[in-house]
Write a structure and sequence with these properties.
This protein is α/β, with parallel strands linked by helices and 526 residues long. It is 37% helix and 20% strand. It folds into two domains: 10-290 and 502-524, Aldehyde Dehydrogenase, Chain A, domain 1 (3-Layer(aba) Sandwich), CATH 3.40.605; 294-486, Aldehyde Dehydrogenase, Chain A, domain 2. Helix 10 links the parallel strand 13 (294-298) and strand 14. Helix 5 runs parallel beside helix 6. It starts with 19 loop residues before the first helix and ends with a strand. Bound molecules: nicotinamide-adenine-dinucleotide. Nicotinamide-adenine-dinucleotide (NAD) is lined by residues 186-191, 195, 213, 215-216, 246-247, 250-251, 254, 265-267, 270, 273, 289-292, 323, 422, 424, 450, 493, 495, 499-500.
């Protein structure tokens, strides 16, 4: 597709001042071009080579209408993993030896290409993952900003080369951060471009090479990232693309002896398994960004309109399939009734439908497994509490052709485990609390610690929230999304507890350095 005409001002997940007519025109045009490419077959890319596989391909179907086959993607086996790791190894030293400014230039070109192609990329994500137009464009824009932000980190640190003190007059001491080598990069389905780009670009700009496996449900977007890097001039073997299953290609990849580190974003269960199994011969870096069960707290002094809007947006944006989505609310008993009434009103006003259409804000969930998980949660909620809205699979035409479920809110006793388990479907649990102490205690009960939000006008509530809440990304009175909307360079995205492994998140100032190890260099003058 031609990229030239397809530029517009930057659009984040919460943009307001946008020329929407122009945006929708360009989106429609890109959607038309992308629809013209449906149903093709795609190989793996190892080194510069397109590699086919004899294994049954992944048939990538749109969650909007499962009759639509987006493409057939080769499935990587253990043997492909061996080859990809070897290709990454072969390319690594030369890539690391390049001046860091050259690596930055190449990656900045990749960011520019993403911006040029952002409508195509957004249209693909909308079809492949069921994102609304705004959500998919935010994903593309964030990807480009992530690359630029990580490049800037290297620039600001002067390539991570630092002169150190000299203990004797004849010595010169330098400290450098060097890449580890080959990184396995394994991505989830929900931000198929931004997370894949963020993880891999940080690894690459640091001088590592990458073997990348996208999620089974989003191989097309992942392939587009491979094309971006290739067209930006990344050397062959620096970024290898292996579509495939987590249980086979994913397992073989992180277990591979030739892999020097793993960067993974996905569920806590898989992340824990990788963490426990990775370091068998020596300790390898294991950067994990995992699940969330993010709470919003609504206190009695809150602006209830802002709270209802912020919670509805964060709970039902991308159908609650964001790691940062609000999936539980603790509301003060004195305002519970009126807050819930406003929340229900906002939720019932959501436009549900095909998210590639303009003005639709709520699309399908990713797959049949998510529908079943939703149905199990609703059945539990009906037993334990009261379903206030939603609860059903949506089966009227044309929604019956996709994985559609209704945005659902349930009022539950605080003892319900529906407040604790990550569901990743549009199910919001509401609990009533007596005050800030109880709200924070309930918030901290989960094993996750990703995002959290509070709505309150009282300074003491806010101070207490920041001091006591166990979460890496915290928001106060955020009407555009109670717990969502982090952006590179603005809100570092760090998971505490079961939500991450490093204590230093993507989007944050310490990210790139984690893909490097220190080397102290002492030279004695002769
Ligand atoms: P998932 O864990 O099922 O899959 C993630 C990736 O891991 C996929 O590519 C999958 O194929 C692969 N995989 C599965 N089993 C594997 C194994 N045994 N070995 C290696 N790889 C394996 O997650 P998902 O359903 O794609 O994504 C949703 C999850 O991701 C949620 O838990 C969500 O909270 C989390 N998430 C976290 C963040 C964050 O920044 N903290 C961001 C987005 C998503």
């Amino acid at each position: 597709m031609t990229a030239t005409a397809l530029t517009t001002s930057k659009i984040t997940y919460t943009s307001a001042n946008v020329d929407w007519e122009q945006f929708h025109r360009q989106f429609d045009e890109a959607l038309g071009l992308v629809r013209g490419q449906l149903g093709r077959e795609y190989p793996l890319y190892i080194g510069a080579e397109a590699v086919s596989s004899t294994a049954n391909p992944i048939v990538d179907r749109s969650p909007i209408d499962t009759r639509v086959v987006l493409g057939r993607f080769a499935v990587a086996t253990g043997e492909h993993v061996d080859r990809a790791v070897a290709a990454a190894r072969a390319a690594q030293l030369a890539w690391a030896r390049r001046d860091w400014r050259e690596r930055v230039t190449t990656l900045r070109r990749a960011a520019a290409l993403i911006r040029e192609r952002k409508f195509e990329l957004a249209a693909i994500m909308s079809l492949e993952v069921g994102k609304s137009r705004l959500e998919s464009m935010g994903d593309a824009e964030e990807s480009a900003d992530l690359i630029d932000y990580y490049c800037q980190q290297v620039e600001d640190a002067g390539g991570f080369v630092r002169q150190m003190a000299n203990v004797t007059p004849v010595e010169r001491n330098t400290d450098v951060l060097r890449p580890y080598g080959v990184f396995a990069c394994i991505a989830p389905f929900n931000f198929p471009l931004a997370l894949s780009t963020g993880m891999s670009s940080a690894a690459l700009v640091a001088g590592n090479t990458v073997v990348y496996k996208p999620a089974e449900d989003a191989p097309w977007t992942g392939l587009k990232l491979y094309e971006v890097y290739r067209d930006a001039g990344l050397p062959a073997g620096a970024f290898n693309y292996l579509s495939g299953h987590g249980s086979e290609a994913g397992e073989a990849l992180w277990r591979h002896r030739g892999v020097d580190g793993v960067v993974f974003t996905g569920s806590k269960d898989v992340g824990l398994k990788i963490h426990q199994g990775l370091s068998n011969r020596w300790i390898k870096p294991c950067l994990l960004e995992l699940g969330g069960k993010n709470a919003a707290i609504v206190m009695e002094t809150a602006d209830l309109d802002a709270a209802a809007e912020g919670v509805a947006r964060s709970a039902f944006g991308l159908q609650n399939q964001k790691c940062s989505a609000t999936s539980r609310v603790y509301v003060h008993e004195n305002v519970a009734q009126s807050f819930i009434a406003k929340l229900l009103e906002k939720t019932k006003a959501l436009r549900i439908g095909d998210p590639t259409e303009r003005d639709v804000s709520f699309g399908p969930v990713i797959n049949a497994e998510s529908v079943a998980k939703f149905q199990r949660a609703v059945a539990r909620a009906r037993k334990e509490g009261e379903v206030l809205t939603g609860g059903d699979r949506l089966t009227s035409q044309p929604l019956a052709r996709g994985h559609y479920v209704a945005p659902t809110i349930a009022k539950l006793p605080l003892t319900s485990t529906l407040f604790l388990d990550e569901l990743f479907v549009p199910f919001l649990a509401v609990g009533i609390v007596a005050g800030i102490e109880e709200a924070i205690a309930e918030t901290n009960k989960t094993e996750y610690g990703l995002t959290a939000g509070i709505f309150s006008q009282r300074d003491s509530d806010i101070a207490r929230f920041f001091d006591e809440v166990e979460a890496g990304v915290c928001y106060v009175n955020k009407r555009t999304g109670a717990t969502t909307g982090a952006w590179p360079g603005a809100q570092p995205f760090t998971g505490w507890k079961g939500s991450g492994s490093t204590g230093k998140g993507g989007c944050g100032p310490y990210y790139v350095a984690q893909f490097m190890r220190e080397q102290s260099r002492t030279v004695i003058d002769t």
